[in-house]
Write a structure and sequence with these properties.
- With about 260 residues, the chain is mostly helical.
- It has one domain (about 40-250).
- About 85% of the residues lie in helices and about 0% in strands.
- It is built from nine helices and no strands.
- α8 (about 185-215) packs antiparallel against α9.
């Protein structure tokens, strides 16, 4: 029983220490611009396609399901605002983060884990290089820059796909759809999604790098660390999203939809 409580708390403590170490290193050692740029390319540009496709088809299928049910009640005009708020506040940031966790979280854990089991990290320490400064901080900065952009792309593509389906397939007038969407989508809805995406990105980096830095037992350990990084990141995103939703709906209230 004590082990079941101690291990999660120990893991959270290690993540907190890693986060503090990355922030301190950022202000004391400065930025490694080349390494950060390479990580922005890998995380931001490399993840665009999967995030865009995920956002577009999520928005389209959500619009279809919303329209089918709302139209039965004579409320087909509410499809735009409902899809917009859902994409901005929940679906856009959560699904984009899950895609990035599956793609880049695994890559981070595998790369750093391989360096760990092949003693490259020990070699860095021997040459006086802090592994957190060299490996974690560039990824930390890169995901801070990349995640809000990826979330914004997921939201925009989801709303565009929802409008195309609703207007072109279901026959809702485009001016009415766009007018209702703009009337009921606040800046706070978009801000909520971007803030969530930033928090989720930090969770992905910290969990994935932590798993990689603590990998052991050769190739088997690297595979285990990679799997745990993806699973832990995905669960953390879903759990933290619940609490952020409660917090943001209190401090960043959404607009009511007049039907």
């Amino acid at each position: 029983m004590l082990d079941a409580i101690r291990k999660p708390l120990s893991h959270l403590g290690q993540l907190a220490l890693l986060a503090v170490g990355a922030i301190i290193s950022l202000f004391t050692a400065g930025m490694r611009l080349r390494a950060t740029f390479l990580q922005i390319v890998a995380i931001g540009i490399g993840s665009q396609l999967v995030v865009i496709v995920t956002g577009a088809f999520t928005g389209a299928v959500f619009a279809a399901q919303a329209y089918y049910k709302f139209n039965e009640l004579g409320l087909g005009s509410a499809t735009g605002p409902v899809v917009s708020i859902a994409m901005c506040r929940e679906l856009g940031p959560v699904l984009a983060a899950l895609m990035v966790a599956g793609r880049m979280g695994a890559a981070m854990a595998a790369e750093i884990g391989t360096m760990r089991v092949t003693q490259q990290i020990d070699a860095l320490r021997a040459f006086g290089v802090d592994p957190v400064d060299y490996l974690v901080v560039p990824r930390f900065l890169a995901i801070l820059i990349s995640m809000p952009i990826l979330v914004a792309e997921a939201i925009w593509c989801g709303m565009w796909a929802a409008e195309y389906l609703t207007v072109q397939v279901f026959g809702v007038p485009a001016p009415w759809f766009e007018g209702q969407l703009l009337a009921h989508t606040r800046d706070s809805d978009v801000l909520s999604g971007l803030l969530k995406g930033t928090v989720f990105g930090l969770l992905i980096v910290l969990i994935s790098c932590h798993r990689g830095l603590h990998a052991s037992d050769g190739a088997v350990g690297v595979g285990r660390a990679t799997t745990r990084a993806v699973v832990d990141s995905s669960l953390a995103i879903l759990v933290v999203n619940f609490f952020l939703s409660l917090l943001f709906n209190r401090w960043l209230p959404t607009s009511a939809i007049d039907l």
